[in-house]
Structure formats: C-alpha cells, structure tokens
Design brief:
single chain, alpha/beta, D-Maltodextrin-Binding Protein, domain 2, 2 domains, nine-stranded mixed sheet, two-stranded parallel sheet, 13 strands, 43% helix, globular
C-alpha cells in the first residue's frame, strides 16, 4: 500500500511539473511584437537597413530590426513558421528555391510574396595597392574549381599561382576570399562564372553526361586553402583585402562602390564592373536582388503594409530613389511598374 501511494505521488508530481513547464513556455511565448523583423542576404542588408532607418524616422512606426544571416540562412528562419516568433521579411540575392518554398509550406508559410528591388553585380576585387588584374571567366574557373581539365581527363586542381594558369599572369599565390555556401552571392557566382564556363567543357561533358549532375560538379570550389570562406559579412572580406594586397575577394558591387578608395575591381572578359555595364548587361556577372514577405503577417504585425509600400516607392527603388546612393542598380521603368502593380495586388 505504501509503495502504491509513493508511485501515485511521483506520477502526480511529474504531471504537475510538466504542466508548470508547459505554462512557462506559453507564459514567455511572445503574444505580440511592436517591430518588423527582417533577415537574409548580406548583399541586400545595406539596402534594407536604409529603408528601415527611413521608415522609422519618417513614420509613426518603430524602426524595423534587420539581421544579416545570408540568403540561405534567412530563408531557413523565414520558413520556420507563422507568428510573432518568426521573421516577416527575408532579403535574398537569388530567387527562393522550390525546396525552400516546400519547407515554408510545411510550416504554415503558404503565401509568400516576392519584391524584385533592383540589380547588383558580383565582383572580384583586390587592394588598390595590388596589381590591376584582367582575367577571363575561364581563368577564374581554373583558379577556383575543385577539378580541372588535363589531357582529356579531370584532375584535382594543381594550380597554386596565377602564373600556373597562364604565364602572362603574375607569379602570385592564388588567394580568394569569398562567401560561404549559405550565401546567395556564392550561389549566383558559381552559376554565372563557374557553371557558365564548365558546363560546355568536353572533359566535364564526357565524365558527367547528365546535365544536372554536371552543373553540380561544375559548382564545387576547391578546399585546399586557395579559396577562403570569410563568412556572411562582406565588409570583413573588404578588410582582409586592405591588409593583403595579393589576395582577391568576391562580393557585391555595392561594397566595391562604398570602398573604392581601398579596393579596385578585376576586369572580367574585357569588361569592368560599373553602374553602366551592369545596367546594360555587358558585365555578365550580375543578378537581381529580392525582398520576400509573408502575407500571413500583414494583419499580424503593425506597420507591415506601410513598410512594403516604402520598399516599392519610387523614392526608394526608382531611378532617382535613395537606394541608388547606396549602389543599387535600378530596375527599368517597365520593371518598376510591374513590381509596383504586382505588389499593390498582393496587399489587397
């Protein structure tokens, strides 16, 4: 009898503790949020941060909180659920992927809206105290690829110096700082440079006849130290270049513009990255930039509709908008009208 009483007492105690834990979880779970929460791309971060500052200054609403988590990291947080615990917007330097849309839907985020805000070039750059480089996409591929062609076969990348690739290039060790695999900048770079060169190479076609497999193999960057992952903070890459005149870095054009006194662009395929060359499309290493938002949060987070209006305002992303001063390459007039019209429809 005493044993039975002890067991019952223990069970009631466990149930009671469980109830307290559940109550505590609900007690500390946010019931509301007075600010907008934005995550995502480090490339889009400076643009969204300026929009947030302007919005907080010029309206009755609190300044949105903007975090730089990388495009992939941003979508992971964005797609985690609906409610006050989860971000309202996600910046992206590439379009959202089908797998990410699926993950969003599994967690209740079923109505995602896309805003294309403009364009950005992806640049290779080095210190102004270093050599002025003129490279081809193929030379960049050969410097960074995990596997390279050699006598009709593929071998592990043997190139240590730029002169190993082409005798006309300097006898300087290959050292390139770049973003991690969670970065949209890296996704775009490997597609626009690595894959663009590699996909038509006979050696890769022979070894990887399946197009999808070949594309993935083309995008693999060497891991022997010539390429150095520098995190999601593009400003950190800029600082590395200031201290190492022999190294190069990969980042968005806007960071080049902000630091032109310290770093210089690398010419690629005889074209220098510039505002005009990116707008015209002659500089081929460029991509659109996006901001995504959850329609489920429009009625949940105060000021969210107004913030969307601020994003697509002509004063923000138009040809004379304030984001151009931060280095954003603007949409064409037709593109801007389409974005504004589509966004207005999503807010209704």
């Amino acid at each position: 009898m005493l044993r039975s009483s002890f067991v019952l007492t223990f069970l009631f105690l466990c149930i009671d503790l469980f109830s307290i834990d559940a109550f505590s979880f609900e007690l500390f779970r946010p019931k509301s949020r007075s600010h907008i929460h934005i995550v995502g791309s480090s490339t889009v971060y400076p643009f969204t941060a300026v929009i947030a500052e302007t919005f907080g200054r010029d309206t009755e609403f609190k300044t949105p909180i903007v975090e730089s988590t990388g495009t992939g990291g941003g979508f992971k947080l964005f797609c985690s659920g609906v409610g006050y615990n989860f971000p309202d917007f996600s910046n992206a330097s590439r379009p959202i992927q089908k797998s990410e849309i699926k993950k969003c839907a599994e967690n209740g985020v079923k109505d995602i809206s896309e805003i294309k805000i403009g364009y950005d070039g992806i640049v290779l750059a080095n210190s102004t105290s270093g050599i002025k480089y003129k490279l081809t996409k193929k030379q960049v591929f050969l410097a960074l690829a995990d596997k390279v062609p050699d006598s009709d076969k593929l071998i592990t990348n043997p190139y240590k110096k730029w002169s190993d690739i082409d005798s006309s290039l300097p006898k300087i060790n290959i050292a390139i700082y770049g973003p991690p695999t969670t970065s949209g900048t890296r996704d775009a770079f490997v597609e626009l440079v690595m894959e663009d060169v590699c996909d038509s190479m006979p050696e890769f076609i022979s070894v990887f006849p399946d197009t999808k497999i070949r594309k993935k193999k083309c995008q693999i960057i060497r891991s022997d130290g010539a390429f150095i992952e520098a995190g999601e903070n593009d400003n950190l890459i800029v600082q590395k270049l200031k201290n190492d005149p022999d190294a190069m870095g990969i980042f968005g054009f806007s960071f080049l513009e902000e630091n032109h006194d310290f770093i210089q662009p690398v010419e690629i395929n005889k074209i220098m990255p510039s505002f005009d060359s990116i707008v015209s499309g002659t500089y081929s290493v460029s991509r659109p930039l996006f901001i995504y938002f959850k329609k489920e949060h429009l009625g949940l987070i105060r000021g969210m509709r107004e913030f969307v209006h601020e994003i697509v305002s002509r004063n923000t992303i138009g040809n004379d908008g304030y984001l151009l001063q931060k280095g954003l390459i603007p949409l064409t007039d037709l593109e801007l009208k389409k974005v504004r019209d589509e966004t207005a429809g999503k807010l209704n």
